[in-house]
Amino acid sequence: MKKILIVDDEKETLTSFARHFESMGWEVDLAEEGAEGIAILSKKEFDVILTDIKMPGATGTDVLRASKKLYPDTEVIMMTGYKDIDKAIESLNSGAYAYLNKPFRLEEVNHKVVQACEKRRLIQKEKEHHANLERLVKEKAKELYHHGRMISLSEMAAGVAHELNQPLNGISTFAEGMLIRIERGIKIDKEKTKSILKEILIQTERMSEIINHMRTFASDFERLPQQNITAEQIVQGCLKLVGTQLKHHQIDVSVKMDPPGLSFLVNEYRLQQVLLNLIHNARDALDEKAEIVKRENLYPNNNWKKQIEIKAFLRENGDKGFHVIEVRDNGTGIAEDKMDNLFQPFFTTKEPGKGTGLGLSTSYGIINEYSGRIEVESEYGKGAVFRVLLPAGE
Ligand SMILES: Nc1ncnc2c1ncn2[C@@H]1O[C@H](COP(=O)(O)OP(=O)(O)OP(=O)(O)O)[C@@H](O)[C@H]1O
Ligand SMILES: [Mg+2]
Fold first, then answer.
1. Residue 329: CB within 6 Å of ligand 1?
2. Which H or E run contains 19?
3. If you measure from the C-alpha of residue 281 to the centroid of ligand 2, how many angstroms do you get, rounded to a whole number?
4. Alpha carbon distance 149, 143 (integer Å)
5. CA 261 from centre of chain
6. What percentage of residues in the chain have a pLDDT greater than 70?
7. Annotated domain spans of the chain
8. Ligand 1 atom index nearest CA of 148
9. Who is most buried in 27, 167, 219, 255, counting CB within 10 A?
10. Whole-structure pTM over 0.70, yes or no?
């Protein structure tokens, strides 16, 4: 049921309007004074308020003000005599929907009230729609974030498999050597046995370190605490996971920390996730470039080599500096018209199954949460550089 409040110190106006709107099916509240109107307003919300401007005590403008404060969407129509036309116009500036001049034609009053009520309905619908959209965007963003994390986990699983392979091979070679000696009755030297067993222990330790790392990464790292971690620790942590893989891809990796010991107040694994994304992208750009180099015989003297340079440095910026980690590659580079899209979710130039286009958007989200940013520069055909900038601590 639509609700209307009518405020007027003229009894006849009140009763005739009340009769009319009740007959139209409205719920009607009446007040003979501004203050009474304001008191009713504090307990009840209306679709439309019809108020006289000039009343003893609290005026129509006071009613308008009180209503706008409590219910910004409720439309208020001012009723006025010719003498108060200035006040009426002023009330429009304070948010009144319209004003009506005395003497009133019921038809006109009815028309204005219905219009005002419709406006309110539309505004509320729009607000609801907006709120729904906002909720949807928030939900989607959350989904994307988790999706991105799953993807980097699967990327990481591939890296871990690579990393585990090497110590496993080592262990099985040592064990096989021992077995052959025993089977062939070759005398086993005590010292030699000791060093082989030691080597096996070292390799198993390395494996369990990698597995532990993976476990921490895979756990709910959103809840992991932030800690002060150095660029060296972050970069070495990444290389432990993908170093062997990069070697398999014949990629030269150089690391330069200048000055050494730059620290970041972050969750180690989240920053590592960002860096791994950048390293994986560099790896893919280098592999792609290698194919082009081969196909088009770009460097007949073989003087192009896949390279990734990782650097950490300080960027001064007034009082507030940034600690920066940079990943530079000499791969395909990025075409100018693609630069604007890099951080959009699902933007990828990779073939289906190879890239989902979530790496950079997820990374952007993480760095943004730490009040930092990611910069990109690229010369198409020559390579790309991605920089992660985080505010330097106090
Ligand atoms: N180092 C780089 N060199 C050249 N292009 C790059 C580089 N890094 C990113 N890009 C471009 O940006 C696109 C988006 O990267 P992003 O990491 O978001 O997604 P992706 O690598 O395609 O897929 P995903 O990371 O989800 O597996 C890539 O497809 C690629 O075109
Ligand atoms: Mg990627």
1. yes
2. helix 11-23
3. 5
4. 10
5. 29
6. 92
7. 3-104, 221-391
8. 26
9. 167
10. no
